[in-house]
Every structure is written in structure tokens, then in C-alpha cells.
Amino acid sequence: MFLLKKRRTVTLTATVAATVTAVGFAFASRADYLSLEQFIDNGRAKNVILFIGDGMGDSEITIARNYSVGAAGRLALDTLPLTGEYTTYALQESNPKLPDYVTDSAASGTAWATGSKTSNGRISTTASTDSDLKTILELAQERGFVTGNVSTAELTDATPAVLVSHVSNRNCQGPKDMTSCPQDKKSAGGPGSIAEQSVDHGVDVLLGGGKQRYDQIIDGGRFAGKTVIESAQAQGYQVVTDASGLQSAQPGTKLLGLFNSGNMSLEWAGKPAVVYPGNEPQRCREGLRPSNEPSLADMTSKAIELLESKQGGQRRFSQKTGFFLQVEGASIDKQDHAGNPCEQIGENVAFDQAIKVALDYAKTHRDTLVVVTADHGHTSQIIPNPTQTAHSPGKYSTLITADGAQMTVNYATNLSDQSQEHTGTQVRIAAQGPQASKVVGVIDQTDLFHILARAIGAE
Ligand SMILES: [Zn+2]
Known about the structure:
Number of strands: 15
Radius of gyration: 22 Å
Shape: globular
Bound molecules: zinc ion
Number of domains: 1
Largest sheet: 10 strands, mixed
Strand order of the largest sheet: 7-8-6-5-9-1-10-14-2-15
Helix content: 25-40%
Mean pLDDT: 91
CATH superfamily: Alkaline Phosphatase, subunit A
């Protein structure tokens, strides 16, 4: 029935028509088949849920899939019907006309958060000239959307920071961390650290790690002498610090959840990658996250619950104005840097479980745009199992997958005793819901900003 409703009002391009036809064949048997009208460019989304797998390039996805469900299995993130690739390069700080081919999370996050590329290390400010760039979360707030920002990293880490702050350097996370951005300090008349700005932005739901930043003392402005947490409470935030506090949090106030002093605890563990002759093939140890810390899926579920109740409760918005939520699986990247395949895969699987929460929500809220993507590629690669005469000069670990086969994961983008590096590859972007057709093909990271902006009616 839904096919009849809008079809005559839209013009399909050849590409989209072909894609929709292909999707129709591929998914026609699914009970939860999403309506055609949502695949095509028919305008506004009520809600937007943006998932960022930090460092989750195609090889990280493939490694997690092979290990957890087997080579022929599919993760939740594999089921999004429309998929493209986007380029992720940054700009050079000293000459912003030239690309920096390997981005960090700050520059790449700035690209989708603002629609403008910048140089590595910058948080929603311009390369070289240090001007503030308006963010998609700020646009959503202006249009009446309630907003949420969830991460397994510190909430002041680059990916959550790009939505809610403008500083010249990603290290300026708390009021005492401002050595790299003295001009941004509150005592210098600036907007303050990332932690201060995240609270001052009035984001409705903030969940993640990084309590150490919010325990620091503010050095200027109307909350001088108070901690960032105290300033949050003074601005109407309920503050929770463990899983049970999160579970019992009620709608009606803004919520700041800080569940670890630093990054949140990891889900899995195992033996690290090492150079040849390596370790015995391994299975990972699972279920290691302490129970007082919520999972990413728990945080996503609660964020959606609170944001949805807020939009329908005390605030009265138009029918098409719901919530904007970003969810980051942060430690895929951090464990990739460290060359820890089990920890990396565990975080990728936990991220996938959070995506499943959103996809289940979207089954009954089909005017929700769900986007799943990464900020940049990373080091881990699946390579042939090593032999004495043929093996990587880097470090590696061989895992026993869900197929019962051996898979060797290699880390060789830096010296083996150093932090492994990001890569400059394009990465996957997948979507469903309004505007989702725009991710198809090869686009750029800045295009995601415009997709989101059109979905919330800002363009
Ligand atoms: Zn990284």
C-alpha cells in the first residue's frame, strides 16, 4: 500500500531506481521490509540516529563479522539496505588548499558535523584561521529537535566533541587541559573546554566516559570555582555515574551520565598481536565489562527512550520534529591502535548490538533516518596465515573464528612497539529511512552533513 502513496510525486534517478529494484529483490522476503518511500529522497526525517564506528573501516567490519558470525554471516550493520563509500581526507593546517590524506577523528568528525573539512586535531573550527563552524547538532537544536550524544570514549573525546564544541585542539577536554587552546579558556573570554561546552550547549542526553574532565574546576564565567558537573546540575542536569543510575533515570530533566573517569571499560580481552612467530591461535574472552558500567546498547536504548519521551512530553514540537542522536563505538579505534584484536572485535560487536537497538526502534518508527558509518580507516588487515617463509614484518594474531577456521589479523602501519596508525582509505556509509538514498555511490564525508541537514529540514 505504501508504494502507492507517494510514488507519483517523486522522480527516481536511474541510479536510485536500479538500487531500489535491487533492494526489492534482495529484501522482498523480509517481514520488516522498509517502505520504498523511505529509501528515496522524499524529505524530512522525524528522528536521526547517527552511528560512528571509530576506526571501523571495511577490514574492521570484516574481521568482526568473520570472528563473531562467520564469513557468510551478517552483522546488524550489514542489513542496512543502502550502502555507499565516502572519502575521509583532512586538510593541511599550514596550507588548507592541500589534502592531508590520513585524517584523525577530530578533522573527520568536523567534516560530517559541519560540512567543512579542517586539519587534524581541530574540533569544529577552520584550518589555519580558527573560526567556529556551525554543527548539525546546533542546527537540530535551533529547529526544535531534542538531542543526544553517546560514546564509549570520554565524552570530551573528538567524535562526541565535534557536535557540541568549538576548540582549536582536541586535547582541550577539561578546564585544566587548556594548554593548547589558551584563547578558548573561559578566563580568557572563550567558550571553555570541550566538557564545559558540552554542558553549556544544553544537549538533552550526554552518556559516556570522561568523568575526570567534568570533575575539573571552571576558571571563568558565571560558574567560576565550580566543577563542570556542578555547573551541569545548576543548568538542570540530572547526573548519574553507574548502570543502575542510568536505568532509573526519569524523563523530565536533561541527563549527564559519566560511567568511567576515562574511556569506558572494554567488553572482551585476549592476547595482543605480536611479531613472528606469534602466539597460538586464540578465541577471545567475552563478557568482561564491569556490571556497574552500561553497555553501548544500554546507553543507546535509554537515550532513545528519554529523547522520545521528551519530544512528546514537556516540549510540543511539530509532527516532524523529534530527536537527533549520535552514538559512537569509540574503542574499535583505540584497540586497533594498540594491536589488540580481541578487544577491537569485542568493541565492534558491542557497537553492532547498539545498532540493532536502533534498527528495532526504526521498525516501528519508519520516519527515522539511521546512518551507520566510520570516521576513518584503520590498521588491522586480514592476511594469509603466517609461515616461516611468508609472514608480515608487523605484528599479528591468529584467531579461531565462528566458522572454526583460523584468521590472521595483522597490524603493520607503524613499528611494532608503537601505536598503530589510521589509514587514508574510503570507508563504508550505510543508511535507511528518509534521505538514505543519498549515501549510495562514492560521496565525501562532508556530504553526510548535508544529508543530515536535509533530513532535519535545515537545507
Ligand atoms: Zn585513532
